[in-house]
Amino acid sequence: MSAKTVFPAELGGSVNVPGDKSISQRVAMLASLAEGASKVIGYLNGEDARSTLSAMEQMGAKAEFKDDALYITGVAGELQQPEEPLNMGNSGTGTRLLAGIVAGCGIEAAMVGDDSLSSRPMGRIRHPLELMGASIGLSGKRGTLPMMIAGGNLKGIGYLLPMASAQVKSCVLLAGLFAEGKTTVIEPRPTRDHTEKLFQALDIPIQINGLEISIEGYGQKGPRFQAREFVVPGDFSSAAFWIVAVAARPGAELLIENVGLNPRRTALLDVIKRMGADIEITVTEEKGDPYGTIKVRGGKLTGTVIEGDEIPNLIDELPILAVAGALAEGATDIRDAAELRVKESDRIAEMVKNLELFGVSVEEKEDGMIVTGPANLKTPAAVIDSHGDHRIAMSVAVLNSFSDGAITIENVDCVDTSYPEFWAHMEQLGGKVEG
Ligand code: S3P
Questions:
Q1: In ligand 1, which atom is closest to the CA atom of 170?
Q2: How many CA atoms lie within 13 A of 71 on its CB side?
Q3: Cα–Cα distance between 159 and 140 in angstroms, integer?
Q4: Pocket residues for ligand 1 (CB within 6 Å)?
Q5: Quick one: 21-231 is in which CATH superfamily?
Q6: Extended strands (E) in 142-224
Q7: What pTM did the predictor assign?
Q8: What fold does the segment set 3-19+233-434 form as a domain?
Q9: Nearest CA among 111, 109, 150 for reference residue 129
Q10: Does residue 285 have a pLDDT over 90?
Q11: 359 C-alpha vs ligand 1 centroid, how far in Å?
Q12: Would residue 20 show up in a list of annotated catalytic residues for this protein?
């Protein structure tokens, strides 16, 4: 098990973050279904994106990294039945979205994952997939992996999502591509729309009417589409760590280029502006999934309320926003975020515990937390365990850059799932990291 020791430091400068994890995995799946070889620029070279790609290779796609790009040769709609279980590693997105495709195209496959993934709820995809006619076995203790999928001959459904989840929405839409008839999903709140944008880029007809999204199924053979070039922008969720690290430091500056600016992902920018930081955004590409440049000038932050429709659009940023809350004047109140309890770890419990170790005043709520700052941060004597959650490890590392001593974070291999360059980038921005 690996560990890193992080020292206090002033962070600032310029950095480019690796490819978006959500988009990379969706591209891996769709390029694998296409006819011909797709070139993918900016594919995330992280473990989650690799697990998804390997699963597609087990079902007949070919993938090769060459000259800084990834080339995926698709199966033209004919996925092969995998001989071994698909090992999805730590990837919830890979598992839930791919389950929709596997169920749709009528092959049988088993899916397994690491300890964290094996504790995450999969009943949320079993329910709609079974309504469509698939048979989904979950042999974990509480509706968890391992999962056995046997599908085919699916029927389109109308499905009101019980929670705001882009993964469940995408699973149903992907299964719906292979169903007979129309599939409609209705979201309780808007969530990230990368799947919809990729369908549009591939000319797969999709109707979007507010929170209601429909596609006409192609039947079990699925849609036929040609390979193409995909550009994956930098991951806003990775950029978020540096945005907060600089936003909370009066006088500090940060420049990030080629970073995803999909409005369903960037609610952290609205929050951090509300808290007092100066943010300048330049969109360089508007079509498809937009991207561009973010400049941050740090300031004295004040607390805010984060709730409602904002939550799904910053769901992965809440651990680092809790750090921003600890550095801000007054209360930062995070509500409506119970989904955080079923992420790679229980992120409410983990962040509350970690903030308390640093001497931050924090109150745990069922669906969030209230963090009151500004804290006089004290580096805890104890070692911190990430509990296998990449975003907890990175949030604690950024928090400690504001502290008064060195801290060791254990179990940091998980950072490689989304951001293998994180520690090197921390040093590039002026941080000191050992281990
Ligand atoms: C993701 C959606 C979100 C997010 C996850 C990636 C996606 O999960 O937390 O990191 O790629 O669709 P939910 O849709 O389950 O909220």
A1: 12
A2: 7
A3: 25
A4: 22, 93, 165-167, 170, 191-192, 315-316, 339
A5: Enolpyruvate transferase domain (3.65.10.10)
A6: 147-150, 158-160, 182-186, 206-209, 212-216
A7: 0.98
A8: UDP-n-acetylglucosamine1-carboxyvinyl-transferase; Chain (3.65.10)
A9: 150
A10: yes
A11: 31
A12: no
